[in-house]
Amino acid sequence: MTTDQTTYLAELWQQITDERRRAHVKHAEHSMEGLDKWSGARLPVLVEEVGEVARALNDLALDSADGDLRSELVQVAAMAVAWIAALDDNPLEPELVPEPSPEEHRYFSNNTDGSSWLNAWCAVCHHDHGTHNDREEDPMCPIVARSMAGLRNEEWHERTGPPFHLPPDIVCDTFTPCHQPGCSGDPHAEARAVVIRRVMAADQ
Fold first, then answer.
1. Are 141 and 127 contacting, i.e. CB atoms less than 8 angstroms apart?
2. Could you tell me if 96 and 21 are in contact, meaning their C-beta atoms sit under 8 angstroms apart?
3. Rounded distance, CA 109 to CA 44, Å?
4. Cα–Cα nearest to 34, from 92, 103, 76
5. Does 178 reside within a domain?
6. What is the mean pLDDT of the chain?
7. pLDDT digit string (tens) for 39-57?
8. How far apart are CA 49 and CA 82, in angstroms?
9. What is the pLDDT of residues 115-164, one digit of tens each?
10. 81-113 in b/e burial notation, b at 16+ Cβ within 10 A?
11. Are 74 and 23 in contact (CB under 8 A)?
12. Is 103 a member of any domain?
């Protein structure tokens, strides 16, 4: 291997490591560095990054610009390396993994997790009626707004660890079925009751 190749590989490995660190700072315990090594929640994280590669390829086909293809591939590599490192019990060095602020919290490991939970809870909740009915004059539920800002909600309770569930096992204390015009209450009442019992049992 030439000096140029060695330098290139060292720089590429640093980019992958930097991306692992960036993802952990953003997602904390829901990142590839924070999840249990056998957690099924790791797969959606990796698949989401592969989906971003597909999007970048589509953009490339449409406008002939390289876009973010390389950076998206680095993110795929970072998530795959992080998973392999977890299986090998070889995590990032502690000084490379900063502790999140107590006020910061990531409830969802990726957009798939977040969208599936919002559809199961907020899309049928009285407090977020304006959002799920596209009524711009009605404010977004402040609890949802806090979560989107990466902040902890006292109203939400979550069960972490295996087995993995989609939507994620998160319960909102303020959930109220929506019966306003265009809504029909809670179509998932039985499934929601199962989730509530599971989360509450884990809290005890």
1. yes
2. yes
3. 8
4. 92
5. yes
6. 82
7. 888 888 898 889 888 888 8
8. 13
9. 888 889 988 898 887 676 665 556 678 888 777 767 788 889 888 767 77
10. bbbebbeeeebeeeeebeebeeeebbbbbbebb
11. no
12. no
- CA–CA separation, 164 vs 159, rounded Å? 10
Stretch 103-108: mean pLDDT: 72
CA dist., res. 153 & res. 91, Å (int): 29
Q: Which two tokens stand for residue 151?
A: 């902040």
Q: Do 91 and 166 belong to one domain?
A: no
Same domain, yes or no: 35 and 58: yes
Confidence band, pLDDT 50/70/90 cuts, at residue 175: very high
Residue 201, token pair as written in the block: 């049992």
Domain membership flag for residue 61: yes
Are 91 and 130 in a shared domain?
A: no
Which range marks the domain in which residue 146 is found?
111-203
SS3 content of the chain, % helix, strand, coil (to 5): 55, 5, 40
Please count the residues of the chain: 204
Token look-up 């569930």 returns 165
State pTM to two decimals. 0.51
Total number of domains in the chain? 2
Judge if 117 and 42 occupy the same domain: no
Judge whether residue 95 has pLDDT over 60. no
pLDDT in tens, 66-87: 567 888 899 999 999 999 999 9
